[in-house]
Amino acid sequence: MEYLFVYGTLMRTFGHPMHRVLKNYAEFMGEAKVRGRLYEIDGYPGLVVTDKASFVEGELYRVHAPEPLFAELDRYEECSPEFPQPHEYLRLMREVFLKEGGTINAWVYCYNYPVDPAKLIASGRYTIREAQKT
Q1: Topology (CATH) of 2-126
Q2: Which of 3, 84, 125, 130 has the fewest CB atoms within 10 Å distance of its CB?
C-alpha cells in the first residue's frame, strides 16, 4: 500500500479540482505532519525538506490506484518526464508523523527551487486564509 501526504491546495478544505482526482484514487486517513518548512510561493505553498524540529501540517491519504493518481498529480505538480529539468517539485518518500502517534512513509511533493525571497509560513499550516493573502 502506498500513501500520500498533502499540505496545500490538494487538502479537503480548498475544494480544488485536483482534490476530486485525489479522492477518486485515495482514501483520507487523517491529519498528519512532516518535517520541513512551508513557504508561500507565488500563490501556492512549497514544502522544503529539513531535518530540524519544524513541521508542516497536512493530510494523509492511502492510495488505492498509485499509477493513475501519480501520473495525474505529477503532471499537475509539473514533475513528470514531459516537463524540463530541474522540476519545481519533486515527489519524495518522507517519514510522516500521524496525529494519533506513530509514523508512516508516504510520498510528498517537495519544493525544489530556492525559497529566497519567498515568505515563510511559520505556522507550518497552509490555510484558505493564507491562500487569500496572495
Answers
A1: Hypothetical upf0131 protein ytfp (3.10.490)
A2: 84
pLDDT digits (tens, 9 = 90+) for 5-41: 999 989 998 888 999 999 999 999 999 999 999 999 9
Task: Record the cell numbers describing residue 121, joined without a space.
Answer: 509560513
* pLDDT tens, position by position, 73-129: 999 999 999 999 999 999 999 999 999 999 999 999 999 999 988 899 999 999 865
Task: Give per-residue burial for 16-55: e unless 16+ CB within 10 Å, then b.
Answer: bebbebbeebbeebeebbbbbbbbbbeeebbbbbeeeeeb
Q: What is the C-alpha to C-alpha distance for residues 108 and 125, in angstroms, rounded to an integer? A: 15
> CA of 117: how far to CAs of 2, 113, 120, in Å?
34, 11, 9
Q: What would the pLDDT profile of 34-47 be if each residue is shown by its tens digit? A: 999 999 998 899 99
| Cis, bond preceding 86 (omega within 30 deg of 0) | yes
Strands (E), the chain: 2-6, 26-35, 37-41, 44-48, 55-63, 89-98, 103-111, 119-120
